[in-house]
Amino acid sequence: MKVTFYGIGYVGLVQAAVFADRGHDVLCVDIDEAKIENLKKGIIPIYEPGLTPIVEQNYKEGRLQFTTSIEEGVKYGDFQFIAVGTPPDEDGSADLKYVLTVATNIAELMSDSKIIVNKSTVPVGTAEKVKNRINEVLNERGKKINFHVVSNPEFLKEGSAVDDCTKPDRIIVGTDSDDVANEMHELYAPFNRNHDRMVVMDIKSAELTKYAANCMLATKISFMNEMSNIAEQVGADIEAVRKGIGSDSRIGYSFIYPGCGYGGSCFPKDVQALIRATDSIGFNSEILKAVEAVNYRQKETLFNKIHKHYNGNVKGKTFALWGLSFKPNTDDMREAPSRVLMEALWEAGAQVQAFDPESMEECQRIYGHRDDLQLLGTKEATLQAADALIIVTEWQQFRAPNFEHIHSTLKEPVIFDGRNLYNPKRMQKLDFTYYSIGRVVNA
Ligand SMILES: NC(=O)c1ccc[n+]([C@@H]2O[C@H](COP(=O)([O-])OP(=O)(O)OC[C@H]3O[C@@H](n4cnc5c(N)ncnc54)[C@H](O)[C@@H]3O)[C@@H](O)[C@H]2O)c1
């Protein structure tokens, strides 16, 4: 089947590549000329495990193509996938300008029937807005062309996006047409062989399903962070509590790790967007507001521990920082807790020597050159002349480091661990002052 994707980012590129890999013909359209030129040369703009070989292979075999031409895009696909960003607007609501620009472009150029599929995360009612916009433009053009707008939100996780798209848990399709549901079934058939993963529903429910999923996951994290704060206050061990509650199958083990807050391109903006959307209809979502507030507070928790350890004086201190990306296996630093921490440290007059396996370029792009930030090539290099070590992202390579080397290299053996990677008792035995999140043997 012929598919056009608009927006070749974390979602668009992965889903487009996976469709092509299963045999569909896919044209990728992005307004970022450098990105498209690079993709044609085999340079992949993001770090995502397993993505490079399938992009290379399918590009070579002609099933995956790249262009900046909207005209070509509109002409090409019977399915027109919108996968552009929906960043927060100034008030936190989802900014739909990119989605509506693509809708307008399609309407201005289409000459035959299209299925327009909204893959971006968008508030309830967006499909309706897209439909209205297309009708307006078609009316201006004096054309009557059949089209459908479908909601097909994406649930991939950065870091395992290729796997998630290849073996999706579920494929949500919101449509008011049985024929379109059948077309979507055919498009997704290669991912549906083992059992039918497609859940077809009305459009508004599909739009809300995406927000409900992300808000539920963010709630689990904030809930657990709240528990870790309580554990610290009462002298309980959050790790024991985590195992104790995770063993209840109604709760489960996933997404109940306490830490230094959630980040990324989705949870913060989606929780915020649903809050703004519900506020605008006069409904006060108390749970979502608490989830957001707890997360803001949690992103400050590491700095507060550092500040307290140094009796309020971190000016002139140098910190080794391991992990910049908002989670492991991605280079994405959008809303990353590392940013809140580094900015607070800089504000207080401290220096940061950071290492991340994949996000160093991204960090450089965000902060440019500054005297109080050094990006160093290995995790060991960050320890030189540093007062203490801070861990922000739980990359595998940080889990079993050489503690003797850390101990002998830091000016003082102090570790602030925002991801509870190590055993506090062992750290005590190794003569570290060890701060973690919500555990009993804290320094
Ligand atoms: N990143 C994730 O993990 C994830 C997961 C599920 C859903 N989503 C949602 O998917 C959407 C896309 O997210 P992303 O992380 O892939 O975004 P991204 O920022 O990585 O990519 C968006 C791309 O859209 C391009 N673009 C903007 N306007 C365009 C236009 N008019 N025509 C063509 N291209 C245009 C940009 O140049 C950019 O390359 C968002 O709504 C997001 O909430 C993201």
Describe the structure.
The chain has 443 residues and is an alpha/beta fold. It contains 17 helices and 14 strands. It has helices at 10-21, 33-40, 51-60, 70-76, 97-109, 126-141, 161-166, 178-187, 203-234, 238-246, 267-280, 286-299, 301-309, 337-347, 360-367, 403-409, 424-429; strands spanning 2-6, 25-29, 64-67, 79-82, 114-118, 147-151, 171-174, 198-201, 318-322, 351-355, 373-375, 388-391, 414-417, 433-435. It has a six-stranded parallel β-sheet, with helices on both faces. Strands 11-10-9-12-13-14 form a six-stranded parallel β-sheet. A two-stranded parallel sheet has the order 7-8. Strand 12 (388-391), helix 16 (403-409) and strand 13 (414-417) form a beta-alpha-beta unit. Helix 11 runs antiparallel to helix 12 (286-299). It is globular. The model has no long low-confidence stretch (mean pLDDT 96).
Structure, briefly:
This protein has about 450 residues and is α/β, with parallel strands linked by helices. It has helices spanning about 10-20, 35-40, 50-60, 70-75, 95-110, 125-140, 160-165, 180-185, 205-235, 240-245, 265-280, 285-300, 300-310, 335-345, 360-365, 405-410, 425-430, and strands spanning about 1-5, 25-30, 65, 80, 115-120, 145-150, 170-175, 200, 320, 350-355, 375, 390, 415, 435. The termini are far apart.
Give the topology:
Layout: E1 2-6, H1 10-21, E2 25-29, H2 33-40, H3 51-60, E3 64-67, H4 70-76, E4 79-82, H5 97-109, E5 114-118, H6 126-141, E6 147-151, H7 161-166, E7 171-174, H8 178-187, E8 198-201, H9 203-234, H10 238-246, H11 267-280, H12 286-299, H13 301-309, E9 318-322, H14 337-347, E10 351-355, H15 360-367, E11 373-375, E12 388-391, H16 403-409, E13 414-417, H17 424-429, E14 433-435
Parallel strand pairs: 1-2, 1-4, 2-3, 4-5, 5-6, 7-8, 9-10, 9-12, 10-11, 12-13, 13-14
Helix pairs in contact: 1-3, 5-6, 9-11, 9-12, 11-12
